Amino acid sequence: MTDTTSNAALTGNVLFYGQPEPVSVEAHGKMGVDPVDKPYAFVSQSNLVPLTVTEFAPAALSYPVIFVGEAKLPVAAMT
To answer: What is the pTM of this model?
Structure first.
């Protein structure tokens, strides 16, 4: 069995998340999901979206697929 830290801080860049935090019953037990007017508005702040291999063909129908960085990561360029 392993021990977990309940107050671990998340660091680094996490695409599409403003303030990610671990979910806990104490802090989030009474929360729920409400419908929002513009559910994809968070994407407006990004011009590149990472792709998996299975997403290449559908993405290429509407967006250029490019490879970025030294690791040549595939992304769709949102124009």
So the answer is: 0.56
Per-residue pLDDT band for 8 (boundaries 50, 70, 90) equals low
- Select the more confidently predicted residue: 18 or 7: 18
Alpha carbon distance 34, 69 (integer Å):
37
DSSP state of 15: T
Reading phi first (left if > 0) and then psi (alpha if -120 to 50, else beta), residue 74 is in: beta
> Which candidate, 15, 10, 12, 76, places its Cα nearest to that of 45?
15
By the 10 Å C-beta count (0-12 exposed, 13-18 middle, 19+ buried), 9 is classed as: exposed
What is the tens place of the pLDDT at every residue in 14-48? Answer: 777 778 888 999 999 999 989 999 988 888 888 99
- CA-to-CA distance for 56 and 26, rounded, in angstroms? 41
